[in-house]
Amino acid sequence: MYCSIDILEDPVIKNVIVLQTVLQEVRNRSAPVYKRIRDVIQNPEKHFYSFTNEHHRETYIEQGRGESSNDRNDRAIRVAVKWYNEHLKKIEDEEKIQVIFLTNDRTNKEKALEEGITAYTCEEYIKSLTANPDLVDRLACVSDEGKEIESGKIIFPEHIPLSKLQQGIKSGIYLQGTYRASRDNYLEATVWVHGDAEENKEIIIQGLKHLNRAVHEDIVAVELLAKDEWVAPSSVVLQDDGQNEDDIENEEEKENILKTSVNKDMLRPTGKVVGIIKRNWRPFCGMLSKSQIKEARRHLFTPADRRIPRIRIETRQADTLEGQRIIVAIDGWPRNSRYPNGHFVKSLGSAGDKETETEVLLLEHDVPHQPFSQAVLSFLPKMPWSITEQDMKYREDLRHLYVCSVDPPGCTDIDDALHCREYIKNLEIKIHTYKLLSSNLCSLRSNVDRLAFSCIWEMNHKAEILKTRFTKSIINSKASLTYAEAQMRIDSATMNDDITTSLRGLNKLAKILKKRRIDNGALTLSSPEVRFHMDSETHDPIDLQTKELKETNSMVEEFMLLANVSVAQKIYEEFPEFALLRKHPAPPPSNYDILVKAAKSKNLEIKTDSAKALAESLDKAGSPTFPYLNTLLRILATRCMMQAVYFCSGMDNDFHHYGLASPIYTHFTSPIRRYADIIVHRLLAVAIGADSTYPELTDKHKLADMCKNLNYRHKMAQYAQRASVAFHTQLFFKNKGVVNEDAYILFVRKNAVVVLIPKYGLEGTVFFEEKGKPTLRLDYNNEVPSLTVEDTTLHVFDKVKVNIMLDASNIQHQKIRMVLVEPKVSYKKKKMI
Fold first, then answer.
1. Hey, is 416 helix, strand or coil?
2. Beta strand 416-423 with 426-434: parallel, antiparallel or unpaired?
3. Where do the PIN domain residues begin and end (predicted)?
4. Are 277 and 220 in contact (CB under 8 A)?
5. How far apart are CA 733 and CA 750, in angstroms?
6. pLDDT digits over 414-426, tens only?
């Protein structure tokens, strides 16, 4: 079953009984596959049923003396099949039902046949379904454990068995870590070693035999090489684009290129993969690289993610699948095969199609996007929904207040609203976030009653908090404004209504709060954000520009930050062991090297010994003749930062948020798009006596696991967002031809420069080494930093002109190509590369 899940999910396969013994084994081996089989069982159209044979009197068996657990389970399966066969014989029916036992364990199949059970391997059964020949393509490529095909040259060393690996890790002979393949060099990877030891935290793996069949994100065991065999990270870009899967001599030539390009000053701990502790295989999106042999069934699949090796599959549908985005699963990787074996799962659609490419980026970044099940939707209140007397009992009625929301244009999920009013001699400020129901029921739209969770401060006119309280509430927003509309109200000389007065009060306090934060060392960084204007009919991007920030953006941000800090203090005070908080670690000093060097090249000093020193030196760093320089420095400073993470207060002692210069922080204000905020809402509700707790909420170990998942989901969502921006940028430039724009150099590489185009907020790489083009003389200076191309020297922050165009030569990896126009590089006649 573990190997046949793609077949079992097909609509053709129905009327299946899954034994409890089998389900337990699948659960132990793979949680994702277990979930998939449970989903199939719950689908009423499939007629799949689970049978608890381990709890049935006539099918339960004891493990025999000397019998292995695996043999006992195999016997339990056969006993259950025989019993069910006998059970069906008692039913008086003209149509006799035959039970077919499917197993990929050949020994178990042979024993079943000896006992008179009708048994097939999955492959035998599927090939017998002549009306559905396409199912054959979806068969997993299964070989008996430990009995790899002996024919063919052995390419890879044998993997050490798991029991010996665990002993070796315990004794320190091997190191355990997560395998991270390189995007730019398929013959190189890094293993991030687990544990707290600072030494050998990151190990380089180079060469096909040393990579030894590990796949990106596998948990592997590594043996360190002798110090005289250590290497440096390669600066060579190597893509696996060959068609001949058996061309090992070519691989050896490429490995020699790695050795000749070693920088002796940058040697790092180097090792080799000796075994796999846990595979992290998943279904991969990509395209078929059709074999050049006529009518061949064996083809190579090229994944969209360059870190994943090509996969060998067998299919009869090559002509149909060519040019399609397809999904393929890995089944195994024998020692004598250059590539892993796999099988076709399904087609997603034509490559380049907008819906297909969106599906690919969601799948590749593990973003769940299936519709909610009926079981989940059943928890929504019945429509039409309205606030009841029961709701009123436990909530404060704030519907009389002139609350408003301020959001980007087109925002439908309004998750916070604000209000400010004079309160005796002071000011009362309220931030309201909604109670989560659904986008229609909880979005804080104007002129409708909504359930909310309110954070209320009493402040003086110096924005000093005198009192804080939290309450479940009912609000009625009086206006849903965009940032521009709110700004227009604040600046207007004629508008003095309650909403405008409230906005002016909020804006005045926000300026004081922001200055205080910055004085405490909070960073104001920069990151170019793009905004697409879409065609209303085709939904293709018709314009691309950077987002314009107004004073009201900052106003909303200040009160959101203050609410998050206030809530963090409250839940930690109430639950010191299991508050869900968010921290931002300080970057190691080496992270700032590129920023410091870049500033130095413009005769500016950036101090990095504290967040306050960095903030102050960034404020001073500027040039009257080059106003965009400060923005560029702040963009570079952003790249130096660490990732902020969620954590459980009882499992950590460093709470500090470096970027905000805050001793404590959490997320409370956006429960419509962040699950962390929902947990924080629940904790806060318990803290103020508005709700009761439940066991998982007060278990710090479970909360820590949840934080780990939240961090992973947050990271993958960020990557998916970037991939979506890249794809829509490609669509925008698709019909533009060649576009000429001003750009600034952000980074200098050995054979390229990375540029930023302010008009579009777009980043790209200008390469100076390309196939079929003259070889240029390149001189890279890491200290300045600069790159001299022939007689032209390029520095970080130089203003240049580039041509932008879409390179669609590789349909799977289309990209924006940039070419330097000014300063003009003079190509001299040299040999071609």
1. strand
2. antiparallel
3. 1-110
4. yes
5. 28
6. 778 899 988 767 8
Query: What angle separates helix 629-640 from helix 611-620, to the nearest 10 degrees?
Result: 160
Encode burial over 348-382: b for 16+ CB neighbours within 10 A, e otherwise.
beebbeeebbbbbbbbbbeeeeeeeeeeeeeeeee
| pTM (predicted TM-score) | 0.81
Give me 823's structure tokens. 């300063």
* Alpha helix (H) residue ranges in 142-195: 162-171
Q: Closest Cα partner for 286 from 388, 183, 357?
A: 357
Instruction: Give the number of other Cβ atoms within 10 Å of residue 316's Cβ.
Output: 14
What are the tokens at 278?
A: 């846990």
Find residue 344's DSSP bridge partners: 328
Q: What is the pLDDT of residues 21-64, one digit of tens each?
A: 999 999 888 888 888 899 899 888 999 999 999 999 999 999 99
Q: How many CA atoms lie within 13 A of 192 on its CB side?
A: 7
pLDDT of residue 267: 84
Tell how far CA 178 is from the center of its chain. 16
In the numeric block, which tokens belong to residue 532?
């697409």
Q: Which tokens in the block code for residue 576?
A: 């010191």
Contact indicator for 345, 6 with CB cutoff of 8 Å: yes
Phi, psi of 827 (to 5 degrees): -80, 125
Distance between start and end Cα atoms, the chain: 51
Contact 545, 594 (CB under 8 A): no
Q: Which of 565, 580, 560 is nearest to 416 (CA)?
A: 560
Residue 771: per-residue pLDDT: 67
Of 81, 115, 87, 86, nearest to 100 (Cα)? Answer: 81
Handedness of CA 792, 756, 780, 591 (dihedral sign): positive
**Least confident span in 314-328, 409-423, 480-494:** 409-423
Separation between Cα atoms, residue 619 and residue 617, nearest integer Å: 5
Give Cβ neighbours of residue 396 (< 8 Å, ≥ 6 apart): 454, 471, 472, 473, 474
